[in-house]
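Dear Dr. V.,

Thank you for agreeing to look over these. As mentioned in my earlier message, I'm a first-year student in the group and I'm still getting used to reading structure tokens, so any feedback on how I've presented them would be very welcome. I ran two proteins. I've put each sequence directly above its structure. The first is here:
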Amino acid sequence: MTDFSEELVRPTTEDEQGEPSVRSGSGMCFPWLQNHIESIASGGKQEKDFAQTTSACLSFIQEALLKHQWQRAAEYMHSFLQILEDTDSNKRQGAPEIIWRLGSEILYYHPKSSVETFNTFADRMKNIGITNYLKISLQHALYLLHHGLLEDANRILTQAETWRYGEKSSSQEVLVNLIQAYKGLLQYYSWSKKKMELSQLDKDDYAYNTASQNMLNHSWKTSVNLCTLIQIPGVWDPFVKSYVEMLEFYGDRDGAREVLNNYAYDEKFPSNPNAHVYLYNFLKREKAPREKLISVLKILYQIVPSHKLMLEFHRLLRKSDKQEHHKLGLEVLFGILDFAGCTKNITAWKYLAKYLKQTLMGSHLAWVQEEWNSRKSWWPSFHFSHFWAKRNWKDDKTLACEKALVAGLLLGKGCKYFRYVSKQDHQVLKKKMKQMKKSVKKYSIVNSGL
């Protein structure tokens, strides 16, 4: 932190000379820090206890971080470093990790910090917090990646990959696997660049064969680094995506399918919506049967009913020959529009307006009633209030018309939303609004006595 702490080394002003002050080991003067430390005293009595001081200092650092006062946090850190001399062995052992986490956060955001500063700090912390070497190395590499320093990040990961301390523990093994996997991601990045270069070469060209061989070498190294990690239960989205892309590129579709199936369905892995998205997209590329695609999206629907793929799920269900799928298609549309983030999704409203009408025409009133019964107490105010009618008509008239049709079918002509929109005079939408009124009059579930 020395690179950006020069501004802290300043002469004490006349106003500060009379005040008690705290000095760091480097001679930096913090006249205001003494006041803060004194504030922890009870009854005005100054606490000089070492533990009280470091505890107070930690609180001040946390407060400064929350307020994004990076300079002040850096000054507190100078005083907090004395925790490394704590007589309590437990505190002394845990101190390096605390210092690393706080210090790296400060250096990441401090306006006068630099990559060189961060590198110096990280190297020192690896020596002090030897048991945290792998964690620090990984975060150090990610910091370098953020700054586009891929070669430096790869060097840090390579060093950490072979590092060992004491007896190998299971947590240490997972960290090593994670480090190797991030190294694999870097190799995947190089492989992707070579893949792009290869696509621009003529297959009959000698350079094509050379580039192809280089890609194969990179893919083998990457596969080794990624494969071990994704077999361990966890959420490994970027690693799985990269590995599957490489398997597909080399024609190993069975291998790719196995990886994705395990990632999505293995009970040892945590529930992960993306796992089902990756599997669905893969099966779609393979032109898998509709039933298979529906089975994958059905699980995704149970996890995230508002996922953007649910509209695609509805289309698949609609095309199915099974009546149970048609019923589920209606449920999916209602499920999407239950969420506040989807209230202005015009495609969802169009689908629901059209499908509601088709369902009622097909004599499936019970389906509509089943979905509406659990929503009629809150959907009117959530979707179909007078406020939303005015707001939607002002912002998106087409959306307002689709919603008005749904409102009319579910609540009848007396619905505030339907009445407001149907009274508006708009030449372009005149025909649509006429059809809307006709549909509501004929098919509204209110008219059906439900």
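The second protein is here, in the same arrangement:
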Amino acid sequence: MAESSKVIHVRNVGHEISENDLLQLFQPFGVITKLVMLRAKNQALLQMQDVSSAITALQFFTNVQPTIRGRNVYIQFSSHQELTTAEQNIHGREDEPNRILLVTVHHMLYPITVDVLHQVFSPYGFVEKIVTFQKSAGFQALIQYQAQPCAASARTSLQGRNIYDGGCQLDIQFSNLEELQVNYNNDRSRDYTNPNLPSEQKGRLPHPGYGDAGVAYPQMANTSAIAAAFGGGLPPGITGTNDRCTILVSNLNTDSVDEDKLFNLFSLYGNIVRIKLLRNKPDHALVQMGDGFQAELAVHFLKGAMLFGKRLEVNYSKHPNITPGTDSHDYVNSNLNRFNRNAAKNYRYCCSPTKMIHLSTLPQDVTEEEVVNHVQEHGAILNTKVFEMNGKKQALVQFENEEEAAEALVCKHATSLGGSIIRISFSQLQTI
């Protein structure tokens, strides 16, 4: 392999692959400073801001075959240590005003969506397009105005400001991109000049590994979502090479646990195919996840977790899958599986059980008292907060310990509160 360099050489770059496609593939790993398309050779040269970002990208793609628009591309370090000719600078210098802004959000206390950004930036002029992405430096967005003076005005007014009190601080500079390309209208990208774009690529998200062991990384439904979620790397302790989809859970409290409660807990880490409580060992259960990566997340984050007074033992099963039958519960088609939509966001929220739970899809008129009444049977509540995000009511509830929070989650996720089916996950916030 060539000596490490911040310049990455990409091969098999077909004519259908745009500069924006390459940017989206590599943005999770760090700031891209230059990009040169070698169209005659079907190649590209891409310069990261530093060598470590390039190393992270190449390490990630040793396990994951990078594909763009269905075409495999091949990457290696370039023999160049620096691109010195007159290539374009991607992320710009502040002294060159442009109608496209590069926005970095620091101290992200709450998730930021395209709708939130549009609300913040549209008072300064017509926003044509927004593209968001997650990288090791944090959450970033490119915002394209119809006219350059609007972008300049927004930058002057919003630089250094917080979107929410005490958090989500904006760091804004001009980008040197000439035009943003938006393929989908969803939470991550939006073209306000073309409302008819699809929300996702049709056929892009198969259910990987359902019913078979398979191989972990190549079958993963959405490798770019994983890269985006974890800033181009993987969480500490996660290898990404596991190919076993089925998990054996033991030391369960047989009086309190059923398949749906296990579903509510394990579905935080991936889609659930099937769950089976073992008749001959009542405190044991098998949980089949959507793929090996999701199974690895569940084993890593739930090993040793406390639930209903018992410390869970969570390991890979010798069984590659759970045979469908009357003694197993099937969840393949459940609309409660979280990873069919917003996969990157759900991967990003994966963590071990915490003392704090996050409740969403609440009724618009919900009160703090109603939220407390709904979950207080599960433990001592230290603090609660009901707030609005993108026009939707959400809440945080802090319990005395992780076990109480886990009990509230497994018992009350997907239950009805005021006529709404609520969603619950663990929050990584330390305090409210």
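From my reading of the second output: The first helix runs from residue 19 to 26. The longest strand covers residues 127-135. Does that match how you would interpret it?

Kind regards,
E.
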